[in-house]
Amino acid sequence: MKIALIGYGKMGREIESLARDRHHEVVIIIDQDNLSDLNAEKLAKVDVAIEFTSPKSAFQNVITCLHAGIPIVSGSTGWNDRYPEAVTLCQQLQGTLFYSSNYSIGVNIFFRVNEFLASLMGKVSGYSVAVDEIHHTQKLDAPSGTAITLAELMAKELPGKDGWLLAPQKADNKITITSHRIGSVPGTHSVVYSSDADSITFTHAANNRKGLAIGAILAAEFVKDKKGVFGMNDLLKL
Predict the structure, then answer these.
(1) What is the set of active-site residues?
(2) Would you give the distance in Å from CA 219 to the centre of its chain?
(3) What's 177's domain CATH number?
(4) Strands 48-51 and 72-74
(5) pLDDT tens digits, 173-204
């Protein structure tokens, strides 16, 4: 499989290394110094593009790949407000878009178990709920896409909850997300239910970026010959 790698930070380098271990070829690397190379002519040489950049550039990167007819796997977060536009364009062009707020297989299992836990907690009273996330200082968006996904999944299962707020904001009908940016932490997410009697804490901690990178490569392998809009539930059959 021939890959275009859009974004060459720590995640991009990890994806490049693991892709080559799986006998794929990274034929294009796009970074800040050669943004003009992200065009239809260059993309015609690849089977799929994997994109991990920033909230400011992610949407345009996705759109460029869709217009070029290249399947795009996007791992950038912080552009959720424009995601529906990308989905609409993908459908109009009969293209291929794979998006997830987190490509870790463990995190996606964490999502599903979190949904089940929320459905149980929604049947009892007396518990408050919050989400806490920690990432490295270079992460640009807060809260993380993973924390937002957790809160949105929980809100669907918890009576009286409708979306989320970023601390220090609070509202009885919202799930509060607290974000920390510390050192080189790759990502730790906790869901905390608290009552006067006890607390339940449910945590996923990434040890490194490898889980995210292998998930993105598996997603690229999955969509290479497909058309449509996909996510990790499709890949993992959760």
Answers:
(1) 135, 139
(2) 12
(3) 3.30.360.10
(4) parallel
(5) 999 999 999 999 999 999 999 999 999 999 99
